């Protein structure tokens, strides 16, 4: 349970964060992050590839929430450049001295080539924790084997339809925390009748049911919304518990149970 998880390097990560994928740099992003911080989020997830780090940084400053109370993640866009140099650029755009988590956005060029640069980023104090995203079980194995400091976390698509039990088990074996992106299926699972039935019966919303399900499986979740009421609603997942029966029903929606992949298709 609780609202934070301890990573293998000893740092704590809040279980709930705001994701800002596909939110353009500008007022929509500034508002979403500011509203999230106002309603109690203490974890924001951005990426170099999203192009909105400036807005995230602006909202963080305008919120006046102390920097050390917010867990800030950005992701290295793997294009052959040095992770350290790209981290420095991210820090300038974000207007902070350090991020809490810096992850390789996807395993372009193979799972290990950027890892020593990620470790260097951590040694230099530019990132407190380092991790990966969209890595399969085999790719996690490779990077762990090649590492001095192993990845603290793997961020992957995870929701009842994409449960990836073998990938999650592999991460567990290595002490790699798993973080769920698209926990609402980018919105498309909110009308699902199975989810709706549970939500109605326990007087919660479909989004809350899906987020609670992931958190109750021990994952970190980063739902995206740019609407104030939804951002607030998505944070109310720590005041109820899904029954074992309802967890089982949601588990049964899985279409990826046997897979160790982070994605159905590699789009990079
Ligand atoms: P919007 O940003 O317009 O609020 P995911 O986190 O799985 O990627 O899902 C994000 C999508 O789900 C976005 O399209 C977002 O729309 C929508 N969404 C997020 N939270 C809610 C909610 N509580 N109710 C309805 N739709 C939501």
TrEMBL record:
Source organism per UniProt: Hamadaea flava
What keywords is this UniProt entry annotated with?
NADP, Oxidoreductase
Q: State the family named in the UniProt similarity comment for this chain.
A: Belongs to the aldo/keto reductase family.
Q: Which Gene3D superfamilies match?
A: NADP-dependent oxidoreductase domain
User: Cross-referenced InterPro entries, in alphabetical order?
Assistant: AKR (IPR020471), Aldo/ket_reductase_CS (IPR018170), NAD(P)_OxRdtase_dom_sf (IPR036812), NADP_OxRdtase_dom (IPR023210)
Q: What is this protein called?
A: Aldo/keto reductase
Give residue ranges for domain NADP-dependent oxidoreductase.
16-253
């Amino acid at each position: 349970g609780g609202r934070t998880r301890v990573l293998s390097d000893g740092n704590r990560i809040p279980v709930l964060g705001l994701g800002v994928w596909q939110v353009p740099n500008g007022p929509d992003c500034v508002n979403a992050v500011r509203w999230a911080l106002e309603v109690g989020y203490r974890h924001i997830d951005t990426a170099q590839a999203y192009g909105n780090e400036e807005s995230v940084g602006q909202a963080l400053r305008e919120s006046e929430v102390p920097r050390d109370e917010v867990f800030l993640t950005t992701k290295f866009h793997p294009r052959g450049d040095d992770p350290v140099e790209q981290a420095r650029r991210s820090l300038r755009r974000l207007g902070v001295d350090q991020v809490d988590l810096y992850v390789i956005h996807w395993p372009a060029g193979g799972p290990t080539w950027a890892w020593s640069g990620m470790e260097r980023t951590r040694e230099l104090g530019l990132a407190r924790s380092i991790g990966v995203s969209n890595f399969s079980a085999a790719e996690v194995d490779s990077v762990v084997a090649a590492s001095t400091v192993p990845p603290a976390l793997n961020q992957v698509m995870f929701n009842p339809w994409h449960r990836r039990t073998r990938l999650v088990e592999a991460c567990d074996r290595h002490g790699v925390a798993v973080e769920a992106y698209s926990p609402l299926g980018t919105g498309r699972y909110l009308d699902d009748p199975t989810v709706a039935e549970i939500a109605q019966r326990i007087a919660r919303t479909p989004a809350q049911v899906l987020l609670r399900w992931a958190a109750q499986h021990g994952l970190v979740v980063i739902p995206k919304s740019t609407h104030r009421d939804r951002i607030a609603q998505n944070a109310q997942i720590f005041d109820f518990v899904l029954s074992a029966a309802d967890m089982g029903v949601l588990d049964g929606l899985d279409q990826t149970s046997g897979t160790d992949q982070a994605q159905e298709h590699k789009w990079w």
